[in-house]
Amino acid sequence: MYSLRSQRASGFGAFDYSSTKQTLNLAIGMPDPVTFAGLPLASSSLPETGIGIGDLLQYTDSQGLPELRQALAQRHKVALENIQVTAGASQALTLLADLLIDPGDIVLTEDPSYLGALRIFSVAGAQIIQLGMDRDGVDLDQLAHTLTSTTGKVALYYTSPVFHNPTGCCFSIERMQAVAQLLSRHGVPLIQDLVYSELPYQAQRPNVLPAGQGVINVHSSSKIAGAGLRLGWVIAEPRLIQGLAQLKLDGGVSPLVSNLVLSLLRNEAFDSHIDDLREHYRTKRDLMADLLKSCTFCAQDYLLPTGGFSFWVRIADGVEPAALIDKARELGNVRLSNGLHNGPQSRRYVRLCFSYLSPAQIRHGLQIIEEAYRSLIPRVHRPDAERVRQPDA
Predict the structure, then answer these.
(1) Is residue 385 within 8 Å of 295, Cβ to Cβ?
(2) Which domain covers residue 141, as residue numbers?
């Protein structure tokens, strides 16, 4: 199941700073924590979690700061040995690729799929096969046929089932259960990228498959705290977590950052902050949804996302997506990415993200795209859409 790289790393052993502190270790060149007190560092700026400066400025365990792992385990109701802390979800996917993929192996996912994951798996040397999907998830018949007809080793299946990147779909739990059962019969691990799972715009949270029995869940603080923290985590079976730790040869995720995230998790106001985020991004989603009703550059068959950061829209017929993307950049420095990068069957789609821009910038950006579209097809015209309609303030 595991890659040649992981087999090579298995003899190294994961770095365990926690046990190192309990020994007279003459084998490792770590700085003397006594010297940390002399740093011109305002200790008042560090969150108070009970962890001393000597540990916050030192290396930490390969699996992550123990106190943070414990807090994450409690939040997700799993055991400590099920948690691996990483430098963001991207490093989590990179480590999983290192653990599971040998060059030439096959990775399965949907068309479209998350561009960042596709790049990570490509760099690992995988052959990526993208399967058809609908709003409930991957086409089960295609998945079953691919698993039985493919001659090479299928290393993993990757998906983002909750507010799917880039389509915004929320896959049904019944479809995901069927996917997991099918993959299990073929011995293929399932990676669920759940970075948007805490940002639903409705009261009821989507159901997700729990980690374990071949299911690997990836989470991140980027969307609920800050992307600059670069802190994510993997929840999986202990054997897989140990394999990730052996491949993580960087001295551990920064204890300073880990301590900050730990303080957030322990703060009762953090979940209220996440509630505020949902309302903040729901307002932006509603604005973009209202504006898109009047746009002629996209077909009106798009999904209204119930969470996440973006819409996935199909460019209206008569204009090449690449030409529209270039024209929008030329007219107003509006940047779009062709859906072709997300999958070969998605070339007529673009992802429209509403999370980062201000309401005024969202309005202006859509106006520029509309102008670009009309300039490429000057005769295409809807009487009720001379311009992108301005919603009521």
Answers:
(1) yes
(2) 4-267
In this predicted model, what pLDDT tens digit does every residue of 16-35 receive, in sequence order? 777 777 788 777 788 888 88
- Cα 53 to chain centroid, rounded: 31
**Dihedrals phi, psi of 350, to nearest 5 degrees:** -135, 150
Sorted by sequence, the CB contacts under 8 Å of residue 370 that are 6+ apart come out as: 295, 296, 297, 385, 387, 388
197: left (phi over 0), alpha (psi -120 to 50) or beta: alpha
Whether 15 and 139 map to the same domain: the answer is: yes
Both 211 and 135 in a single domain?
yes
Residue 118 has pLDDT above 60, yes or no: yes
Does residue 299 fall inside a structural domain?
A: yes
Strand partners, 159: 192
Residue 358 lies in a domain: yes
* pLDDT higher than threshold 70 for residue 44: no
Tell me if 259 is assigned to some domain: yes
Q: Is 81 exposed, middle or buried (0-12, 13-18, 19+ CB in 10 A)?
A: middle
Closest CA to 156 of 208, 230, 83, 102: 102
Total-model pTM = 0.92
Query: Using the 8-state DSSP alphabet, how is residue 166 labeled?
Result: T
Sort strands 127-131 and 190-193 into parallel, antiparallel or unpaired. Answer: unpaired
> In Å, what is the CA distance from 368 to each residue of 300, 349, 361?
18, 17, 10
